C-alpha cells in the first residue's frame, strides 16, 4: 500500500493506492500551512493504522527546496501563496511515519505519471522525454526524462520565463515578481485581469485569445528548443478547458519554429503538443509514482 499527497494551491488530495490503482481519496481545502498539513497528516495516520504504508509520495505546488543535502530540504521557498513561504512540507507530512518518502513538484509528478501510464506510454515506442505544463491559478512545468523527474539547483520554473509579446499587446502582466513573465500573462488570474471578466465568462471569440495563444506558443517553442522533449502536454483548468486554444497554439508553434526542428511540422505537431491523457488524474497519480520511486530507492538528490 502506497500513500500520496497532492498539495495544490486551492485544494489537497490525500490518497492511498495499491500499485498505481488509487483505492481511497480525500480532499481538503488549502488554507494555512498548519491547518492544511495537520489535516492531511490526520488522514494518513488513520489509514496507516489500518494498513501500514510501504512508502509516501508528495507532489506539491512550489517553489520547493529539493536538494536533500541542505537543511531546508522539502521547505516551501518564497511563493505568491500567502503564508506558505517557509512551510516544512516534507518534514511535517512524513515525520509520523517510518517508511521511505519522496517529494517533488506537483507538475514534475504529473509529468512522471504521464510518461509511465499516460501519453508517454502509448504506441509501440513509448516516449523517453515529456514536459507537462499546467495553466491554472499559476503556470508550472514538470519534466520527466528517461524515467526520472528533472531538477538540479532547483526544479524547473518555466512559469517565470519571459516570452516575446504579440504586436500591440499592452497587457502589463500580474506576476508579483516579474510582471509580464508567462505566469503573469496566461494564468487564470492574469486572464481575468486581461479580459476584465472571470475566466469562465470570457468570450471564446474575443480576438485577445490570439495574443494568449501567441504567449503559450512561444513558451512551447522555447521548451522544445531548449530540452528536445518528444512530447509536451498542456493541462490545468485553462489548458484543458479550451481545446480551440490548443489548436491555435499548435499552428503558432509550427510558424514560430520556421522549420528549424525537422520533427515539428503540420503533420507531427498534434502528436507532440497535446492534452494530458490522464486528465485531472495526472497529479494524484504523480504522487503515487513518487511513492513508488521512494520505495525502489530512486530518491531526489
From TrEMBL:
Q: Does the keyword Lyase apply?
A: no
Molecular function via GO: fructokinase activity; metal ion binding
What does this protein need as cofactor?
Answer: Mg(2+)
Per UniProt, the enzyme's principal EC class comes to: transferase
Q: Which SUPFAM superfamilies is this protein grouped with?
A: Actin-like ATPase domain
A Pfam family found in this protein is: ROK
Ordered alphabetically, the record's keywords are: Kinase, Magnesium, Metal-binding, Transferase, Zinc
Q: Which domain of life is it from?
A: Bacteria
The name under which this protein is listed is fructokinase
Amino acid at each position: 500500500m502506497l500513500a500520496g499527497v497532492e498539495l495544490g494551491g486551492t485544494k489537497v488530495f490525500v490518497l492511498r493506492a495499491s500499485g498505481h490503482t488509487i483505492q481511497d481519496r480525500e480532499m481538503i481545502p488549502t488554507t494555512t500551512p498548519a491547518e492544511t498539513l495537520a489535516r492531511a497528516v490526520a488522514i494518513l495516520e488513520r489509514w496507516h493504522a489500518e494498513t501500514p504504508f510501504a512508502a509516501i509520495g508528495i507532489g506539491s505546488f512550489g517553489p520547493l527546496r529539493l536538494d536533500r543535502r541542505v537543511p531546508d530540504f522539502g521547505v516551501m521557498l518564497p511563493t505568491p501563496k500567502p503564508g506558505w513561504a517557509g512551510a516544512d512540507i516534507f518534514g511535517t507530512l512524513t515525520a509520523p511515519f517510518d517508511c521511505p518518502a519522496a517529494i517533488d513538484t506537483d507538475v514534475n509528478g504529473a509529468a512522471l505519471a504521464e510518461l509511465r501510464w499516460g501519453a508517454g506510454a502509448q504506441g509501440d515506442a513509448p516516449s523517453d522525454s515529456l514536459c507537462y505544463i499546467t495553466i491554472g491559478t499559476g503556470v508550472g512545468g514538470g519534466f520527466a526524462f528517461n524515467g526520472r523527474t528533472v531538477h538540479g539547483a532547483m526544479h524547473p520554473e518555466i512559469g517565470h520565463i519571459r516570452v516575446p509579446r504579440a504586436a500591440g499587446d499592452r497587457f502589463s502582466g500580474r506576476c508579483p515578481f516579474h510582471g509580464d513573465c508567462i505566469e503573469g500573462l496566461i494564468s487564470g488570474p492574469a486572464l481575468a485581469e486581461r479580459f476584465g471578466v472571470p475566466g469562465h465568462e470570457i468570450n471564446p471569440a474575443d480576438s485577445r485569445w490570439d495574443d494568449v495563444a501567441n504567449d503559450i506558443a512561444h513558451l512551447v517553442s522555447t521548451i522544445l528548443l531548449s530540452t528536445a522533449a518528444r512530447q509536451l502536454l498542456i493541462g490545468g483548468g485553462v489548458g484543458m478547458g479550451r481545446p480551440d486554444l490548443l489548436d491555435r497554439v499548435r499552428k503558432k508553434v509550427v510558424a514560430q519554429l520556421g522549420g528549424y526542428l525537422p520533427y515539428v511540422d503540420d503533420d507531427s505537431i498534434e502528436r507532440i503538443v497535446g492534452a494530458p491523457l490522464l486528465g485531472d488524474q495526472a497529479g494524484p497519480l504523480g504522487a503515487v509514482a513518487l511513492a513508488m520511486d521512494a520505495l525502489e530507492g530512486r530518491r531526489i538528490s
